[in-house]
Design goal:
With 306 residues, the protein is mainly α. The chain has helices at residues 64-84, 94-106, 146-151, 156-171, 174-186, 191-196, 199-207, 219-235, 242-253, 261-264, 269-288, 302-305, and strands at 123-127, 134-137, 141-145. It has one domain (56-291). It has 12 helices and 3 strands.
Length: 306
């Protein structure tokens, strides 16, 4: 642990996150993420995988550019506040290195899910908070809270399940869909104005940017994100069976104070059963995938540090 980073600096009330020029996949990462090396090439067999439904018609009511712009502003503000409180982990922090290494394996497999992902400025950071939480905002802005790594002692495979799940929400544009449904319900949607970013819809989307902090997805969205996330992680060489151990850990943690993660990601035995039922769809991908040359691990438990 470095003196510049306090893993518990952010207060427990920090809001939770819900939760394309054709650049070559090897050029996706910018800034600090580039330091981790080139992205892996995607083998041809990796395009054999799971099927999900078509994009929601509600998502088309809201311009993707506006949602991503709102997310970018929210993410920048979160980083700024975290840095001021010494709660933004430095690039050389062992858990930042770990998270970025896992992300570099997963993200190349995301591109065929959403063509916009090729121009996203992908970024991943670690926030100092005891919260058991993580998110990926529209536009590829990812963050993990230290608490989810520390309190659940997540393995690399389990981190990949969380990361894949959150990335899947962004790829399938679940936040954009929810915004579209809200606008339609309020009667504020004017399709032409939404497409061109004008009128009531354009203003409303800007006003709704803050909802990205507390957005709750429906069961269908969660199930889809579980399946797509397992696929992404399996292609990247992480064992999809970790989805079961991850949610068992979540269930165990919820017996005390429920993790913040569960406020936007409902849990329960049915979720674990669904994950188990979907394992055959992705186990073949994992069997063929190149496995990580280096495995990391969770932070040392507090008892081991003393």
């Amino acid at each position: 642990m470095t003196a510049e980073f306090n893993p518990c600096a952010l207060p427990s009330t920090v809001p939770a996150f819900g939760c394309t020029c054709r650049l070559h996949a090897r050029r996706l990462f910018t800034g600090a993420l580039l330091a981790g090396g080139a992205l892996a090439a995607v083998p041809s067999w990796a395009r054999d995988g799971v099927e999900v439904g078509n994009e929601s018609q509600f998502a088309k009511f809201v311009p993707a550019e506006q949602v991503e712009e709102a997310a970018l502003g929210q993410y920048a503000e979160i980083k700024k506040q975290a840095a001021q409180q010494k709660a933004l982990a430095p690039d050389n922090h062992p858990q930042v290195v770990r998270l970025r290494a896992i992300a570099q394996r997963i993200i190349p497999y995301s591109l065929d899910w959403n063509p916009r992902a090729r121009q996203w400025k992908w970024e991943i950071n670690l926030l100092g908070s005891k919260q058991v939480n993580a998110f990926c905002m529209p536009g590829g802005k990812i963050a993990f809270y230290y608490g989810i790594l520390d309190q659940l002692q997540l393995t690399d495979h389990e981190v990949a399940m969380v990361m894949g799940h959150e990335i899947a929400h962004a790829l399938r544009e679940h936040a954009r869909e929810r915004m579209g449904k809200t606008l339609a319900t309020r009667g504020a949607i004017e399709l032409g104005a939404a497409i061109f970013g004008l009128g009531n819809a354009g203003r409303t989307v800007a006003d709704m940017g803050g909802q990205l902090l507390t957005l709750k997805f429906g069961r269908e969205d969660e199930s889809e994100a579980d399946l797509v996330g397992m696929e992404l992680a399996a292609r990247a060489g992480y064992d999809p069976q970790a989805g079961v151990t991850l949610w068992n850990k979540m269930a165990e943690a919820s017996k005390g104070a429920p993790p913040q993660f569960l406020s936007t990601h409902p849990s329960g035995p049915s979720r674990i059963r669904d994950i188990q039922a979907n394992l055959p769809k992705v186990q073949g991908l994992y069997a063929k995938a190149a496995k990580p040359e280096q495995m990391f691990g969770p932070p040392k438990p507090a008892a081991a540090k003393s």
